[in-house]
Amino acid sequence: MAVNGADRPAAGEYLQLQTTTDSRAEAMELARAAVAARLAACSQVAGPVASTYWWNDEIERAEEWFVFFKLPADRYEELAAFLVEQHSYDEPEILATSFVEGSSSFLTWITEETRRRDVPAAPAPRAPAP
Fold first, then answer.
1. Which one of 61, 65, 72, 81 counts the least CB within 10 Å of its CB?
2. How far apart are CA 60 and CA 62, in angstroms?
3. For position 46, which CATH number holds?
């Protein structure tokens, strides 16, 4: 990882990626699944928002929800591919913005939480007390 100053993660190596979807339920599931797969360290769902756009030569208006993901830039391709596969839209919005600045501890946390690791098995259920 490049550093900025005294062992500080370089902010430009991190992204906030956004997408939109037409239901809160889908937004929440995309957010959960990407974090569970460690493609993003965290995600937020915001909305609804009123969207106006061209689709099939018609102006459309819809209620949508934003999903924001925070991730290292080197995980962009994997998260984008995941969204294309999982998203209900034919052409999902996938936009990424590079961080200009960020706290060193937060950027380090993003890196740590997006490392691939073995997920520990769920603990065995306890037997009921007699």
1. 61
2. 7
3. 3.30.70.120
